[in-house]
Amino acid sequence: MTISNIVVVITRIYGLQWCISGAVGLIEIFSVIHGSKSFSGLLPSMLIGLWGVVAWLLAPVLARFITRGYDGPVSINGLTLADLYTFAFIFLGLYFMLGNLANLLTYLYYALRVIISRDYDSVINSSLYSLSQPLITFAAGAACLFNGRRWAGRLSARDM
After folding, report:
1. CA spacing 20 to 30 A to 94: which of 37, 58, 103, 117?
2. Share of the chain above pLDDT 90, in %
3. Alpha-carbon Rg of the chain, whole angstroms?
């Protein structure tokens, strides 16, 4: 395994994080502006998601640029590219899940209290849209955690 392989994996994991952050931002904005004609708030989230896609696609080019002077082998006995991708997906999954668990539980508790009390007013209903950010990020983390090994196998086979 070379240094550029490691740079590709790290860049792609950040790209995936930016895509998920952009998607979550778009969903939050759509939930807030559903009756509004102004879509100017969409631009930052769209740019973050687009930057994530660009980072994913250009990761090999960026890795070659970063390691242009020296792209030597990294001697880590027994560690393959698939292992590195697996570690990255598991790490990202745990980061997303654990980082959003408290917010998710808080919002779910709040939503349950609102449903039980049947005290629906527009302020409470609009605040329930805030549940989307931790829920989607937690779900993306679970997807990375539970599918990471399979995705790692596919990515490492394609990158070889």
Report:
1. 58
2. 9
3. 20
Q: Please report, as a single letter, which amino acid is at residue 116.
A: I
| Cβ proximity of 45 and 8 under 8 Å | no
Whether pTM > 0.85 for this model: the answer is no
Tokens representing 150 are 């399979």
Buried b (16+ CB within 10 A) or exposed e, 84-111: bbbebbbebbebbbeebeebbeebeeee
Per-residue pLDDT of 76-117, as tens digits, reads 777 888 888 888 888 888 888 888 887 787 777 777 777 777
